[in-house]
Amino acid sequence: MTLKAAIIPVTTFQQNCSLWWDEATDEGAVVDPGGDVDRILQAIDELKVKVSSILLTHGHLDHAGGAAALQEGLPDRPPIIGPDARDRFLLEGIEAQGAQYGFASRNVTPDRWLTEGETVSIAGEEFAVLHCPGHTPGHLVFVSEVLRIAIVGDVLFQGSVGRTDFPYGDPGALIRSIHDKLLPLGDDIAFLCGHGPGSSFGQERRSNPFLRGG
Predict the structure, then answer these.
(1) CATH number of the domain encompassing residue 12
(2) β-strands 15-22, 27-31: how paired?
(3) Pair 158, 198: CB distance under 8 Å
(4) What's the pTM value of the predicted model, to 2 decimals?
(5) How many domains are contained in the chain?
(6) What is the torsional sign of CA 30, 69, 119, 202?
(7) Collapsed DSSP state (helix, strand, coil) of residue 136
(8) How many Cα atoms sit within 13 Å of 80 on the Cβ side?
(9) Domain extent for 174
(10) Per-residue confidence at 1, pLDDT binned at 50, 70, 90?
(11) What's the half-sphere exposure (Cβ side, CA atoms, 13 Å) at 8?
(12) Sign of CA dihedral 47, 53, 54, 55
């Protein structure tokens, strides 16, 4: 497998922005550039990655706040892809969110919205798009069943799950998303989450206290 990934923690939220690339071609993608765009650009330059897309799992400030500036800072202005259009209101409120936290963030309109059933190319590898609401209405997860890798944003964490204490949060939908869409894909699928260390679906199925009895 020539697909490689580097995690770039960004902002005071320590969000796991990730840079993915194919060692054979240097083609790559950035997922969830929440801020600290200079740091992301530095990593891209050091690794000599040719970024062809910027992907968003959902519309929260710490995942999407740097997307517009990153797009402008890259050659050829790669397209911003995702999330599901049900997160439009969050992307349109990023500047206001940023002002509350002292971030110079910008609203963003994706070049392409995504829906479940589509696929996206990440560094030349095809990932399925799954709609996993609960944390936000339009949250997406990207899964490669071939590579046994998932990018889950803030749906699932090691030992925890995404917050749902927002006016638009839905704890029932979140747990259903995990039980009905993610865990059936297989215990061996490893995942990168939006904050903290990654895990696997099997480890979380067996030990995550939020998933018991579901």
Answers:
(1) 3.60.15.10
(2) antiparallel
(3) yes
(4) 0.97
(5) 1
(6) positive
(7) coil
(8) 28
(9) 3-211
(10) low
(11) 27
(12) negative
